[in-house]
TrEMBL record:
<dbReference type="InterPro" id="IPR015590">
    <property type="entry name" value="Aldehyde_DH_dom"/>
</dbReference>
<feature type="domain" description="Aldehyde dehydrogenase">
    <location>
        <begin position="32"/>
        <end position="440"/>
    </location>
</feature>
<feature type="active site">
    <location>
        <position position="227"/>
    </location>
</feature>
<dbReference type="InterPro" id="IPR029510">
    <property type="entry name" value="Ald_DH_CS_GLU"/>
</dbReference>
<dbReference type="Pfam" id="PF00171">
    <property type="entry name" value="Aldedh"/>
</dbReference>
<dbReference type="InterPro" id="IPR012394">
    <property type="entry name" value="Aldehyde_DH_NAD(P)"/>
</dbReference>
<dbReference type="InterPro" id="IPR016163">
    <property type="entry name" value="Ald_DH_C"/>
</dbReference>
<dbReference type="InterPro" id="IPR016161">
    <property type="entry name" value="Ald_DH/histidinol_DH"/>
</dbReference>
<protein>
    <recommendedName>
        <fullName>Aldehyde dehydrogenase</fullName>
    </recommendedName>
</protein>
<dbReference type="InterPro" id="IPR016162">
    <property type="entry name" value="Ald_DH_N"/>
</dbReference>
<dbReference type="InterPro" id="IPR016160">
    <property type="entry name" value="Ald_DH_CS_CYS"/>
</dbReference>
<comment type="similarity">
    <text>Belongs to the aldehyde dehydrogenase family.</text>
</comment>
<keyword id="KW-0560">Oxidoreductase</keyword>
């Protein structure tokens, strides 16, 4: 590990990666100190730049994701472009209001003081992106970072190399390159950047790496936002519209070959409707795959091996085929695998979907709450009370009734995990807040300047002060 001599003046190190990280952060810090990123106009220009980047260069983005992930242009538009534009437009619309200081009251003892709080940028921050939605999940956090007036280093995932190269090329073209930098590379450069004592690290990725990021940030007391994964469950009760449930679950699982952090990981289906539901699910999957190749490509050989490893020893209800040459796996449904099988342990993150029979909603909730708190939890039911039970009895990042993943697309809602699925939240105003410090300000008048406030305190002074407090 390399160290940097002084946070504000100079950097000396022998490792070229560490030198690049140190020089970049030093340069951005100097820019931040000039106040360049503070005005509303600068922030708005960056947000407009992000919108222009993804809309004007949509075809280049789509080509990159076809190469990295085997995605169709439509999936790129839906998953990475429309989602980014929605976030940026919302921030543009509300930013002026978010930046205004908010007046608050004061207790009697502080009257007639004037109290307020305002959002102050943290300084120079680091956004570490994953490979599964490489544009939305780097530009989305960047929207929060620039809206809040920060300088930012973006570190895209090396596992989506074409997308990483596009970001490195286009971000300087569309955004202020004095204040926003892209550094490509793997874990080493990430660690070297963290060693620069960033003012915040915003990480999206898996839980294990998230822990390493938090550990690396701890010695510097760098705050972290961790957007992690987990096993997001879906309950289907006997009161569900089974056709709608099957279509929406199939849609959520097939999107990006199941490599979506809020994809359905496993289903908990009431026994009395499981056969009928499984038939609907099979039909929905085959209808949605009409005209598409039998198997879905996954990101790389390592993920392919991990996923096919999960299939070993299971008896698929549908699917189960895989092709190593094209690193593609057929969407696969497995009914009632052993709960100790690997497929029911870690996050699946691929086109494999286990269904577990449950006796009741109580049973389903008990199973979910035995595990770590998931990033998302879903229920399909027409019963208001059943929906309310999921919302109130299952601790998780976010909960949705009768759909999959749609909460992600509402900038009016905070998005983030809890426990092993993450800490901190973003989207909309929460993104702006995540990259800001809430600074308290209190303006006191010089008069009156009551003697009773200062020692020595007479009996009478003490009585009055106790009444005022
Ligand atoms: P990952 O954890 O492998 O990597 C993410 C980033 O961390 C990459 O940029 C990588 O270079 C960097 N990295 C890897 N090892 C590192 C180390 N030792 N030190 C420092 N940096 C390191 O995640 P991934 O495989 O790209 O993404 C998949 C995971 O992300 C899944 O678990 C998924 O659920 C989760 N995810 C969460 C969200 C969310 O919003 N909560 C969104 C998408 C994906």
């Amino acid at each position: 590990m390399t160290s940097v001599a002084d946070r504000s003046t100079e950097s000396t190190t022998t490792d070229p990666g560490a030198q690049l990280a140190a020089d970049t952060v030093l340069r951005l810090r100097a820019v931040h100190r000039t106040g360049r990123t503070l005005p509303l106009e600068w922030r708005k220009r960056q947000l407009e730049g992000i919108i222009r980047l993804v809309t004007e260069r949509e075809s280049e983005l789509a080509e990159a994701l076809a190469s990295d992930l085997g995605r169709t242009p439509h999936e790129t538009w839906f998953g990475d472009i429309a989602s980014t534009v929605g976030e940026a437009e919302y921030a543009l619309k509300h930013l002026k209001k978010w930046m205004k200081p908010t007046r608050t009251g004061v207790p009697l003892a502080l009257m007639p003081g004037k109290a307020s709080y305002r959002y102050e940028p943290l300084g120079t921050v680091l956004v570490i992106g994953p490979w599964n939605y490489p544009f939305y999940l780097t530009l989305g956090p960047l929207i929060g970072a620039v809206a809040a007036g920060n300088c930012c280093v973006v570190k895209p995932s090396e596992h989506a190399p074409a997308a990483s190269a596009v970001l490195a090329r286009l971000i300087p073209e569309y955004l202020d390159s004095e204040a926003i930098a892209v550094l490509e590379g793997d874990a080493a450069i990430t660690q070297q950047l963290i060693d620069q004592k960033m003012d915040l690290v915003f990480f999206t990725g898996g839980t294990e790496i998230g822990r390493k990021i938090a550990e690396a940030c701890a010695p510097h007391l760098t705050p972290v936002v961790l957007e992690l994964g987990g096993k997001s469950p879906v309950i289907v009760t006997k009161n569900a519209d089974l056709g709608v449930a099957a279509r929406r679950i199939a849609f959520g699982k097939l999107l990006n070959s199941g490599q979506t952090c809020v994809a359905p990981d496993y289903l908990l289906v009431e026994k009395s409707v499981r056969e009928e539901f499984a038939a609907e699910l099979k039909k929905a999957m085959s209808d949605m795959r009409a005209g598409a190749p039998e198997k879905q490509r996954v990101v790389n050989e390592r993920q392919f091996q991990r996923l096919t490893g999960l299939l070993k020893g299971l008896k698929p209800e549908t699917g189960g085929n895989a092709d190593e040459t094209s690193i593609a796996i057929e969407p696969t449904v497995v009914v009632n695998p052993d709960r100790t099988a690997p497929v029911m342990q870690g996050e699946i993150f691929g086109p494999i979907l286990p269904i577990i029979d449950v006796d009741s909603l109580d049973h389903a909730i008990a199973i979910i709450n035995e595990g770590e708190k998931p990033l998302a939890a879903y229920i399909f039911s027409k019963s208001k009370s059943e929906i309310e039970r999921l919302f109130s009895e299952v601790p998780c990042g976010g909960a949705v009734a009768n759909h999959i993943a749609m909460h992600v697309l509402a900038p009016q809602l905070p998005f983030g995990g809890v426990g092993y699925s993450g800490m901190g939240a973003y989207h909309g105003k929460w993104g702006y807040e995540a990259f800001s410090h809430r600074k308290a300000t209190l303006k006191m008048p010089t008069k009156p300047d009551l003697k009773l406030m200062y020692p020595p305190y007479s009996e009478r002074d003490q009585k009055i002060l106790r009444k005022l407090a």
